[in-house]
Write a structure and sequence with these properties.
Blueprint (H helix, E strand, L loop, with lengths): L1 H6 L28 H11 L1 H18 L3 H22 L1 H7 L1 H11 L4 H23 L10 H16 L7 E7 L6 E7 L7
Antiparallel strand pairs: 1-2
């Protein structure tokens, strides 16, 4: 039971253990910290844990021999059930028999993409569209004086770009003032569903 539990820590999908780092000049290994997971993987790959678990059964035999039969039966039954459960949940035939593989596949299919990854992609898409407007639309109005008329022309140009399918985000032209100089300028901002930029 201890051996199966220890070997369950291996991750076969990661492949073989990573090779040790190349030695530095002079033949000495470069200094560095070994994290707990790497140390655990090295211990598992060395086989010392398996040998230790098997050797422990021999060392415990004299102690177990003096125990009441009920305790030994409890341990044997508990260990047997634990090994059976491990086999059912970790092997292909056992997963097919218990339906774990089907449940896991259904759960994976029901999961959507990670929220942060989706959010990051959405924000990147908005920035890409704003960059397009900044580089392709706003330079047309660089010489126009900032004011309501220019704002209306920029907004019409942005709506035309959206009608052509070059942008998909709701964008709106707004007239703002520079905080430092107080001079007006026309900006293109993202508009939410309630109309706020």
């Amino acid at each position: 039971m201890l051996q199966r539990g220890a070997l369950a820590g291996k991750r076969p999908e990661e492949g073989a253990a990573s090779p040790p780092p190349a030695p530095a000049a002079g033949g000495a290994a470069p200094p560095g910290k070994v994290d707990a997971w790497t140390a655990w993987r090295r211990l598992l790959d060395s086989g010392a844990l398996r040998v230790g678990a098997q050797g422990m059964t021999i060392l415990l035999f004299p102690a177990v021999a003096g125990l009441p039969a009920g305790v030994v039966l409890l341990w044997v039954a508990n260990a047997s059930l634990g090994v059976a459960q491990s086999l059912l949940l970790s092997t292909g035939p056992g997963q097919a028999l218990t339906g774990v593989a089907r449940i896991a596949a259904t759960a994976r299919a029901a999961q959507g993409p990670p929220v942060l990854k989706t959010l990051d992609a959405a924000v990147g898409d908005v920035y890409a569209q704003l960059k397009y407007v900044n580089e392709a639309v706003l330079p047309r109005f660089a010489a126009a004086p900032p004011g309501e008329a220019t704002r209306a022309r920029v907004e019409a140009a942005v709506k035309a770009e959206r009608a052509r399918g070059r942008i998909a985000v709701n964008l709106r032209a707004v007239l703002r003032k520079d905080v430092a100089t107080g001079k007006p300028y026309v900006a293109v901002a993202v508009e939410d569903r309630k109309g706020f930029a």
